Structure formats: structure tokens, C-alpha cells
Recover the amino acids of this structure.
């Protein structure tokens, strides 16, 4: 009997261990402890090739912005089962993240060929059609996704319908609010904007306001349509024309944007906004000297504008004129002495470039005083203290992580502070969190290097 029981236990060991690893992976993934989740899923694959681990690894790498690895995992899941919808959705998302919209759409259409009720595929297609200004196709896909229970689809459907049917748009947005989803607050704000369009205003003014609303919600194609409509209906809509130029620039339509902004300047030569937008356009094309001239013209028209000063500083920084950048960041903070954001910009300049560190410390201290709930401010304060060998660095960085637990930068800085004090286990944890949370790779690479140094020091 003992032999048979031992045999049964041995036979179950593989499946039980696999299930345990998948459970552990899901737990770590849900808590964004991606390093541990990856380890669990990779161990599960060592036990037995299976789709689940490849899909989960693909989603983790996608969340981290590690697109090559994500594609490999989704491709492997697709190889194991060409009818796996989640693999196709993932491959579409990777293509979209890389800017290959055609491939993304093709993958999502493959999903719908397998299951025409897949809400996620309809939603992603709807968003893609909005990006292409294909309004009727976008509405069709978003309506299908909403019927299948996709909450985000209903929010964007409401935004899309606001172009032509504000009453129906409001009904959809009210449902988003009632469901208390993550988008409820945004939906309530849009409802308030739509309710403010009383009908007493002319059509051009309504289009201009809708254009600004879409711009604020990062929907540039919808903003372009409405701002173009406003300018077409009323050439005196100077602000709408200015923002139209900005939107065209953001969409990569440089020549058209420049033409619109030059026309805006001709019609309204005393608008600092037109010079400001032209400067941004010129700088993006590498014409820093021209950009600086345009920013200076904007500043002469609006001498108290801190944002213009900050952009002048950023332009000098691109040219590696650090002394000029230092002075303009200082002037930006002075002009907005109660706004912590400009002190954050000033602190980041000093600390990220390791220049005039005492100035960076002072700027970070002011930012913390102005906004004691800012994790970014505490991170910069702790980083300045670390660089200046101040003993309070660790405490400041621990506050930063508590206030902003998803900041890769704060965790990396905290890891350095722990390591400096010889707290290697705590440093290892902080570095792992930086690796988990970084979506661009900058702090991930540094944290990975720091982990290797820790491991080497421990031998």
C-alpha cells in the first residue's frame, strides 16, 4: 500500500507543481511583481510546454514595453494553437505599439474571424479606426464591443458620438459613470462639457470647444476634424486655428501645420500661442536657433509665462548649453513660484545631468514643500540627498515609493540608497521592482547592472 501511495504522489507531482507555478505567476503578475512572475512562468514551461505561460509572459513583456520578447511569446502560443485568440490579440497589440497599424488591424480581424463576439478585438479595431478618422467604422466596432460588455468601448463611443449626437453620447457616458469604472470621472467631465453646449452658441464655437475637449483627451484626429470645422465655419476662430496647427504637428503633418500656424500669425500677430507652437514645430525638426527666436517672440508678448521659459531652457539643453538652460529653468520657477511642476523640472535638470547639485536639492525641497503628496518630488529630493551624501536620502526615497509605488525611477534610486548602507536584501528588492515597473528600459538596464554588482559583491 505504501508503494502504491508513493507512486500516486509521484505521478501527481508534475501536474501539481505546474498548477502551483501558474498560480504563483498569476499572483505575482497581478501585483506587478513581474520579475518573480516571469521566473514562475518560465519554470512552468520547463515542466511542460503550454500556451498559458507563453500568453502570460507575452502580456508581461508587453506591459514592460519589451516588444521583441512579447512577440516571441505570443508567436509561440500561436504556434501551439493557431486558433488562440489571446495570442492574436497580443500580436496585434505588439504591432500597434511598434506603429505597424496595418498588421495590428489584420491580427484583430483574424480574432473576429474566429469569434465575431470578441469584445476586445472590436474595441481595439474601433480605436484604430478613430486614429484613421474612419468614424463610421469606428462607431460600428465600438458599438459591437459595448454590446459585448467592454466598458472602455462605451466611453470612447460616447466621445465619438459627441460630434453629431450629444444626447446619445451623454446616455453612453452616463452608463460609464453608473458602472463606477476607472473611466467614470473622465466620463462625468465630458458630460459636463457637453451639457455646457447649450445650443445658444453658433456651430463654429461648438466645434471649437469639442476640438479642445478631444485634444485634452489625446484624440488628435477627432480634434483635427472639429477644429478644422470651426475655422472653416468662422475664420475669426483664431484660437481654434492655433490649436489646429498644433494638432497637425502632433499628427506628423509638419508642412500643413506650419502653413496653418503662419496663417494664424498673419491673422493674429499678437498671439504668443502661435509663436509658441511654431517654436515647438521648428525644434522638433532640429531648427533650434529658429525655435529660440520664436520662443523669445512669444515671451515678449507674454513675459510672465513660465512654460515658455521652461521650453527655452529645454531647447538650450538640447544644444548642451547647460549654463543657459540653468538660467532659464531658474526663471521659469521664479515666474511660477507656487507651482511645484516648474521646481520639479529645475530639479530634474540639475540631478539628471549632475550639474550644480545644491541647486537641484533646493528645487526639490521647494517642490516637496509645495506638494507634500508628490512621489516625484520626494524621489528627486532623495536622489539629491543621495548624490550629496546626505544621511536622510533613504527616508526621502522610502516616502517617494510609498507615495508612488509604481515609479521605476524611485525604486532604482531607493535600491542605490539601500546598497550604500549595506542593506543588500532590501536593495535587491528595490532593483527588482525597478525592473518590473520600467516601461522604457532606462532604469531597468541600470537596475539589472546593479543586481549583478550586488551578486558579485556577495561572492
Amino acid at each position: 500500500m505504501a508503494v502504491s501511495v508513493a507512486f500516486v504522489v509521484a505521478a501527481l507531482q508534475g501536474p501539481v507543481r505546474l498548477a502551483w507555478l501558474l498560480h504563483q505567476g498569476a499572483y505575482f503578475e497581478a501585483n506587478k511583481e513581474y520579475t518573480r512572475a516571469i521566473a514562475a512562468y518560465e519554470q512552468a514551461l520547463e515542466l511542460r510546454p503550454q500556451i498559458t505561460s507563453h500568453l502570460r509572459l507575452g502580456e508581461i513583456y508587453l506591459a514592460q514595453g519589451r516588444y521583441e520578447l512579447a512577440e516571441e511569446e505570443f508567436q509561440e502560443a500561436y504556434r501551439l494553437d493557431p486558433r488562440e485568440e489571446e495570442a492574436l490579440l497580443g500580436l496585434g497589440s505588439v504591432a500597434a505599439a511598434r506603429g505597424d497599424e496595418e498588421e495590428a488591424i489584420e491580427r484583430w480581424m483574424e480574432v473576429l474571424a474566429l469569434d465575431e463576439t470578441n469584445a476586445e478585438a472590436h474595441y481595439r479595431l474601433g480605436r484604430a479606426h478613430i486614429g484613421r478618422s474612419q468614424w463610421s467604422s469606428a462607431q460600428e466596432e465600438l458599438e459591437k464591443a459595448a454590446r459585448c460588455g467592454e466598458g472602455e468601448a462605451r466611453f470612447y463611443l460616447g466621445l465619438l458620438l459627441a460630434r453629431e449626437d450629444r444626447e446619445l453620447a451623454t446616455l453612453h457616458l452616463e452608463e460609464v459613470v453608473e458602472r463606477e469604472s476607472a473611466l467614470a470621472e473622465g466620463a462625468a467631465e465630458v458630460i459636463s462639457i457637453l451639457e455646457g453646449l447649450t445650443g445658444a452658441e453658433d456651430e463654429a464655437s461648438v466645434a471649437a470647444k469639442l476640438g479642445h475637449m478631444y485634444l485634452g483627451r489625446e484624440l488628435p484626429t477627432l480634434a483635427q476634424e472639429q477644429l478644422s470645422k470651426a475655422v472653416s465655419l468662422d475664420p475669426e476662430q483664431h484660437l481654434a486655428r492655433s490649436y489646429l496647427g498644433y494638432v497637425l504637428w502632433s499628427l506628423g503633418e509638419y508642412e500643413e501645420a506650419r502653413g496653418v500656424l503662419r496663417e494664424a500669425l498673419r491673422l493674429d500677430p499678437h498671439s504668443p500661442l502661435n509663436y509658441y507652437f511654431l517654436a515647438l514645430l521648428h525644434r522638433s525638426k532640429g531648427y533650434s536657433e529658429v525655435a529660440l527666436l520664436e520662443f523669445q517672440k512669444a515671451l515678449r508678448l507674454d513675459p510672465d509665462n513660465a512654460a515658455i521659459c521652461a521650453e527655452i531652457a529645454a531647447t538650450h539643453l538640447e544644444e548642451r548649453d547647460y549654463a543657459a538652460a540653468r538660467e532659464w529653468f531658474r526663471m521659469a520657477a521664479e515666474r511660477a513660484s507656487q507651482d511645484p511642476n516648474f521646481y520639479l523640472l529645475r530639479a530634474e535638470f540639475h540631478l539628471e545631468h549632475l550639474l550644480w547639485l545644491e541647486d537641484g536639492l533646493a528645487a526639490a525641497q521647494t517642490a516637496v514643500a509645495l506638494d507634500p503628496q508628490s512621489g516625484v518630488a520626494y524621489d528627486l529630493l532623495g536622489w539629491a540627498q543621495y548624490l550629496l551624501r546626505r544621511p536622510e536620502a533613504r527616508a526621502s526615497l522610502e516616502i517617494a515609493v510609498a507615495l508612488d509605488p509604481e515609479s521605476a525611477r524611485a525604486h532604482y534610486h531607493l535600491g542605490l540608497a539601500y546598497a550604500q548602507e549595506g542593506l543588500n536584501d532590501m536593495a535587491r528588492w528595490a532593483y527588482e521592482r525597478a525592473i518590473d515597473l520600467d516601461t522604457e528600459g532606462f532604469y531597468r538596464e541600470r537596475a539589472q547592472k546593479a543586481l549583478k554588482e550586488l551578486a558579485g559583491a556577495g561572492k
